[in-house]
Amino acid sequence: MNGLWTSSAIAAAVEGKASEDFTVSGVAFDSREIGPGDLFFALKGEQSDGHKFVKDIYKAGGVAAVVSEPVDGPHILVDDTTKALNDLAIASRARTKAKIIGVTGSVGKTGTKEALFAALDRASMGKAHRSVKSYNNHVGVPLSLSRMPADSQYGIFEMGMNHEGELAELTRLVRPDVAIVTAIAPAHIGYFSGVEAIAQAKAEIFQGLTEDGVAIIPFDSPQYGQLREAAVSCGSKVV
User: For residue 106, which of 160, 50, 166 has the smallest C-alpha distance?
Assistant: First the structure.
């Protein structure tokens, strides 16, 4: 089993207590997706509680669980499992030397992410990592980050939003070296006053760029000037 995280590294990152020593090769928060070697985060939501499925993940080959309630089986006990997932993502970003690319936009996020991954994974001989499916929200992004192997050369992360301020939080977690806005369109228009407000919210991705980070924006977009101004104000180089 390839080691993604050791119990000691996880416990240090999430400020938790490990029940025993173990090593995991993957991370998941959906018990239906657990495979051999995985670490399960028992997240609590309005409609569900991952703690109900901890027994199932062990049967499926899961190595351990991150929980806020004691369980029978290898685990790491924390105060808040959602915060713990976020903290593990922060630790993953801190330990990597990979070039990180963040992708957002009203359309084309997933296709752009997949195209970049295909090219960079081939160029790096299998050392590229990307968010799977459309895991682009407040739990999907930290999950994708926490899954990134320490020796990755590239990381490509899709980031989405429905409201102002959401993308700012995600991009500060990802801290991309390159931030791409694919397009601006009236998606989620019900949450915003207009397309300009959507562009402003998408431009939040530039707030998390690393020093000397690069912003890639669509030149043919009516909101190009607005996006460029936002990128420059964050100290970004614009392409």
Answer: 160
